[in-house]
Amino acid sequence: MTNYFTEEASVEAVNGRMASDIDPRVREVMTLLVKHLHAFIKEAKVSQQEWETAIRFLTETGKICSQERQEFILLSDTLGVSMLVDAINNRRQPGATENTVLGPFHVAGAPRVAMGDRITLDGKGESCVFEGTVVDLDEHPIEGAIIDVWSDNAEGFYDVQQPDIQPKWNNRGTFVTGSDGRYSFVGIKPVSYPIPADGPVGQMLKHLGRHPYRPAHMHYIVTAAGFQKLVTHTFVGDDNYLSSDAVFGVKATLIAPYERVLGGGTVWRSPFDFVLNPL
Ligand code: BEZ
Ligand code: FE
After folding, report:
1. Do 181 and 50 lie in a common domain?
2. Range of the domain at 251
3. Residue nearest to atom 6 of ligand 1 (CA)
4. Other residues' Cβ atoms within 10 Å of the Cβ of residue 270
5. Nearest ligand by distance to the CA of 101
6. Mean pLDDT by 10-residue block, N- to C-terminus, for the chain (279 residues)?
């Protein structure tokens, strides 16, 4: 019997059109997508006008995307989808450092820097020594771990957001651990900043009564042979936005100490050990 489209049998009408010889994973995902999408439209009783607003919003989201800007990822971030995908795909043993969202400002190929070196090139901000050890679940140091770090500058912008103002690679660097697993570098105590809010996602946040700020954080990617890749941040513990991060990236275990250092040129010290999960 032909599955003509009706309100009651809408899911069966659409899913029944799939050919029998398609990729099984495509079948599984699309079947669920249609099922939940139709259930949402029915439960919300979406009006014609609301549907048109949604189509206009998605059109604007696509139009603002470019090499430098990915508004769909920002949409995913602000709706908690990026963190959910990250959580599902990075389940770890207790004690292993947790993942959080990568964000759009990572740049591959940051210069290799010697342990203890300064990564801040614009001379702005309060200096901070970041240091600790990369270890396995038994607390054995991991040699040869590659640590890729990046943060905003003292004014809340990444170097790639201000290519004409900030030096290239400002507040970025990569390090490789020795046999003691230790890492150390000098950056700045990061500051909170708004995610790009001048597009459709910013408009959406405004309609929802939400602010666009992220609490201050230092980004890390830590990789080592035989271990799961760790994509994470450490957060500054006294930040006003910890409980309302625009992209839901905060986890309690990622809040790092920031201790004032007296004497010498450095103002802050932030110790943090990274515990890698085996593959
Ligand atoms: C970031 O931390 O760099 C970031 C993450 C998600 C959206 C925007 C920025
Ligand atoms: Fe960031």
Report:
1. no
2. 82-275
3. 103
4. 20
5. 1
6. 88 95 97 98 98 98 91 96 95 95 92 94 93 97 97 95 94 96 96 96 98 97 97 93 97 95 83 96
